[in-house]
Amino acid sequence: MNHEPSAIDLSVDLNGIEMRNPVTVASGTFGYGQEYADIVDLEKLGAIVVKGVSLEPWDGNQTPRMVEVPGGLLNAIGLQNPGVDGFAETYMPFLRKHDVPVIVNVWGKSVDEYAEASARLSDVEGVDGLEVNISCPNIKEGGIAFGTDEKMAAEVISAVRKSTKLPMIPKLSPNVTDISIFAHIAEEEGADAISLINTLPGMAIDIETRKPVLANVVGGLSGPAIHPVAVKMVWQAAQAVKIPIIGMGGITDAATAIEFIIAGATAVAVGTANFTDPATCLNVVVGIEEYLLRHGMKSVAELVGTLEV
Amino acid sequence: MNIENASILKQEKVTGDYNVLVLDVPGVSAHAQPGQFVHILVPRLENHVLRRPFSLYGVEDRTISILYKRVGKGTAALNLLQPGEEMSVMGPLGNGFPMECDCHPVLVAGGYGVAPLCFLAEKLGKKGDLFVGGRSEADILCIEDFEKLGWNVHIATEDGSVGQKGLVTEILDAWLNERADEDKPVFYACGPDGMLKALGNLAESKGATAWLSLDKHMGCGAGACLACVHKLRKKDGSEEWGRVCKDGPVFECREIVWET
Hints:
The complex is a heterodimer of chains A (309) and B (260).
Chain A lengths: L11 E2 L4 E2 L3 E3 L22 E6 L12 E4 L2 E4 L7 H8 L1 H5 L5 E5 L4 H12 L6 E5 L10 H4 L2 H14 L4 E4 L7 H10 L5 E3 L3 E3 L2 E2 L4 E2 L6 E4 L4 H14 L4 E4 L5 H10 L3 E4 L2 H4 L3 H15 L15
Parallel strand pairs in A: 3-16, 4-7, 7-8, 8-9, 10-15, 15-16
Antiparallel strand pairs in A: 1-2, 5-6, 6-14, 11-14, 12-13
Helix pairs in contact in A: 3-5, 5-6, 6-7, 7-8, 8-10
Chain B lengths: L1 E14 L2 E7 L1 H4 L7 E5 L10 E4 L2 E2 L3 E7 L3 H7 L6 E8 L10 E7 L3 H10 L5 E6 L8 H6 L3 E6 L6 E2 L2 H11 L6 E6 L2 H14 L3 E4 L15 E5 L5 E5 L6 E3 L8
């Protein structure tokens, strides 16, 4: 994995979050960073996006919470987390020791909770940005309800904007008719960047018991199966907004990451593939650099949005 | 925790649907303890994104061995692998069995749950009793391993094809009732939830300690995804989710909250 520094500039700037390379992790697939620190050099990542945090501790769903399906997995973890204070006390001391931007995924059950959690996280030393989760399909209140309704999306993004000076990145739901409308709303309401896509709702049934496999009945589909859907949505969103995009959905290697960049993403996030191979992010970084070299480019910025239709 | 490309040294059929795989993986074997597990990326398993967890059956200098039952696509693909092939192994993972044992060790296994107990019996430095149960004779494994180590072996099968007919916890209960109390038992167990729950109740009724290794469907194996959680009882009586992969897989029976 070690390689000499080259003349290629891999750094990107998400309106205030300076990443040494365009590769980060998708929230919920990399814990709070320290879970993987034994085997992944965290300082080789462009940024770390931690698991979703809410104002108060949250228990999440019953088990089973995950099932493998062809080309990916369904999850219904339900955003289990220790709350803002628990997160700050338990995980931030470790993260502060590492030279890597920390982006906290934040969610709430009401607009006020989003705003309050965002305000509190903004006061936590070492937090460099907030990813606003308006797209989780696995909880009854909040989450996706905010991400699929134009008025509610505008309201929650606006409220978070007023509560924080940190770079703010709404994470968009793919479960909408036109993603560019929601990308546009995010930009209008003051988002510094957007990330997409979150998981697609799905379900699996045990035909012997005729019961759903997941305790939550439905879950969110992620993994290679959703990659083409995600690339298309990033491409659409990129045409609608000027703010940077973090593209994600089914990245397994440099090629699947580069598709997002060509479609218009400034940065990319590896999700489910962290479970398959925790070294995926590092391999993607190396692969992007090799690609740029092979195509005679001097920076990753040169590649962003270069799709020829 | 390490991640390493292991090369397959041996693939052996044990009995029925059970195989043993021996892997050369020095970065993992060096730190492995009984009760810990490895997370394996099964080669040639197209369209699959998750690794498969296996408890450690044996560990030598550079090698680990796992005992597996061919039950699904993952283990079917594993069964096709030949010596010389490589695969990615993450481990050792989780917290194993506590190794200080002042009491009389009693191991309780259901089916291939016997695998980590073999490794434990070898490392415990003390002999005791093994109770092993399964549906029928083909599910009773590794008996010779324990006999070689000088352990007393007690077998139960549901169909009575070998050993006593019945559940392993039933023959254990009978044995405990006939036994003099001077040497207190401590239980170590791995097997299906029903067996672990029954053993936990038995241990609590005898005022004995029981270390139970839980088996849950896992995602990351590293404590990150929160898929394999199980309800645990904290000291203050409140309940919380524990990660079987990271906080376990071994828990004392009084910590575990079973669904009613």
